[in-house]
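Example record

One chain of 244 residues, shown exactly as stored in the release files.
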Amino acid sequence: MPATAPPATAFALPFAPACPRCRSALDINGDAAHCARCAETYRCEGGIWRFLPAERAARFASFLAQYETVRAAEGWGRPDPAYYAALPRVPADDPQRAIWRLRSRHYRALIARVVCPLERARGRPLAVLDLGAGNCWLAHRLARRGHRVAAVDLSTDRLDGLGARAWYGDFAPFAAVQADYEHLPCEAGQFDLAIFNASLHYAADCTAALGEALRALRADGRLAVLDTPVYRDPTSGARMVRER
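Predicted structure tokens for this chain:
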């Protein structure tokens, strides 16, 4: 079993990129995207397009450190390509097997109720935005169906974030994009489907995050929200925070 992921390669962006600061169109040259208006250059490093400006990275640094610490302690991810290739199916000894069973069931519902109808309606590969992609399992599955996918997340962790893209090897024909939900690095009207993949509840501003997703969608696009807890009683959410 390998201890480190193989080298990652860049995958072409499946959308017209825009500066996350000013939304001006970006000029792509190899592994760099340049904004003439901001005089800012965003680069693809380690197979991940880095569209998180320094001031936004500073804002999320504390959250990311805490999030990645908790996730590592909970046993998310393994240094094994076979593990990622099989997701959302996991071995019986996986510490998060109960959650992955839910992910698997909800993935099947997503395919049957959203993806298949869109595939029939479009008659072509879909442009998909996977928001909160985590270890990219959903992006991987949708790319294997032939769709053009952008996996978006803040974390670049090699087991539980965008860095896990490398574990999929040649079976990872999707773009890994480090960005935040409120400042997506794309021009408007680019996607057929945007999916908040167990992630909307992490948004600092849900209204802004949903607005950005809608901006990124075509007029007849679809927005799906998966595995986000909804608390009808505010005390339930407060109890969850205390337990965490």
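Notes: The longest helix spans residues 97-122.
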